[in-house]
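Design job #97: recover the sequence.
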């Protein structure tokens, strides 16, 4: 059933980082209010939101008050404790839904799900303990990557195994956490596709972007990506397949490797995605507004791109060059974080590429 939120309704967002902040700005432009739930003090999203609750995810009284104060709940990160979701879902609808969250929270469940849809993934094996490591190495071989099943982001919780002898050290890096061994995909480049699905089941995708990472962190995304027309279509079909299979409502980011044997799905994120920030200046309706439209039961925008764009993340010390960025015609998006730390995402700039 479609539940259309009226102007003045309140969206609850779990997490108060930069994604929550940009969702809140988009919601405010649509006449909607935002209530942020975030354990940390002074969250970036708090500056631009109607209300902020500062409490931990095991504070049931705070969760209950939050759930009662909102009309719909969404989130900006996928590692929300299950107990919090169990409570919140009794108080307001959660979009995207529990299946999308549960699937993407665990790399083993996620890859199994993607293969079940007939999509290509890296070869993988479950590594619950040290004993399983040998069998996994025998079936996957080197080079490979060992990743914790849960809680990984920005390349954290991963160890590369270049030769079989590296496997023991890689396993020690997991610090006892259940892991998955993935065969190394020989890709030419990495792309991602940002897709959205509305409450009516309609799907809209943005053009795929080409992503460059540095030290495990996204550095730049450019559109258009270097793809053939059929690869572009394939990316859209893959995203739509995942969205439909999960009966998804909201925006999703799907990360893909481009190889000579087709597109291989790395992972999906059940939320707005860093590699979709270019849409703020390359599309009439950006990924943040699209997500708000979807969860609010409004019609989706079509997501058409009106310009070529390069998005560059401002990470750590990049902030010291802010004056230089401001002298150019790059669109600057800052997250309001006062402390510069190495590897911390402080903002991003979007450059329209004029040809
Ligand atoms: P992020 O938060 O940036 O999405 P993450 O911690 O979720 O990162 P992944 O996306 O799985 O981790 O991996 C980070 C990067 O490592 C990928 O973008 C890719 O460059 C590389 N990588 C991951 N898995 C593989 C693989 N199986 N083969 C080759 N490269 C890989
Ligand atoms: Mg990734």
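Job complete. Output follows.
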């Amino acid at each position: 059933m479609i539940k259309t939120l009226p102007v003045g309704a309140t969206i609850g967002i779990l997490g108060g980082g930069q994604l929550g902040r940009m969702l809140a700005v988009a919601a405010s432009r649509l006449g909607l209010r935002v209530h942020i739930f975030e354990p940390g003090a002074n969250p970036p999203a708090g500056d631009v939101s109607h209300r902020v609750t500062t409490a931990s995810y095991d504070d049931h009284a705070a969760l209950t008050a939050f759930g009662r104060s909102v009309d719909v709940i969404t989130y900006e990160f996928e590692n929300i404790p299950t107990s919090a979701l169990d409570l919140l879902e009794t108080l307001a609808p959660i979009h995207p839904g529990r299946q999308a969250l549960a699937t993407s929270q665990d790399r083993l469940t996620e890859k199994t799900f993607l293969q079940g849809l007939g999509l290509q993934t890296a070869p993988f094996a479950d590594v619950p303990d040290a004993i399983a490591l040998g069998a996994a190495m025998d079936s996957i071989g080197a080079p490979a990557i060992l990743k914790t099943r849960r809680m990984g982001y920005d390349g954290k919780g991963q160890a590369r195994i270049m030769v079989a002898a590296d496997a023991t050290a890689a396993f020690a890096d997991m610090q006892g956490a259940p892991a998955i061994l993935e065969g190394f995909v020989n890709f030419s480049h990495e792309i991602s596709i940002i897709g959205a699905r509305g409450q009516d089941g309609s799907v809209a995708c943005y053009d795929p972007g080409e992503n460059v990472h540095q030290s495990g962190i996204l550095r730049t995304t450019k559109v258009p990506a270097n793809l053939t027309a059929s690869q572009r279509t394939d990316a859209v079909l893959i995203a739509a397949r995942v969205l439909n299979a999960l009966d998804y409502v909201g925006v999703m980011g799907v990360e893909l490797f481009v190889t000579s044997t087709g597109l291989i799905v790395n992972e999906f994120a059940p939320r707005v995605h860093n590699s979709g920030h270019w849409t703020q200046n390359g599309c009439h309706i950006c990924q943040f507004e699209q997500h708000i439209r979807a969860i609010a039961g409004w019609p989706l925008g079509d997501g058409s791109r009106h310009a070529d764009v390069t998005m560059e993340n401002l990470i750590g010390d990049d902030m010291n060059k802010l004056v230089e960025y401001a002298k150019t015609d790059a669109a600057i998006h800052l997250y309001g974080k006062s402390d510069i730390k190495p590897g911390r995402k402080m903002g991003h700039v979007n450059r329209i590429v004029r040809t």
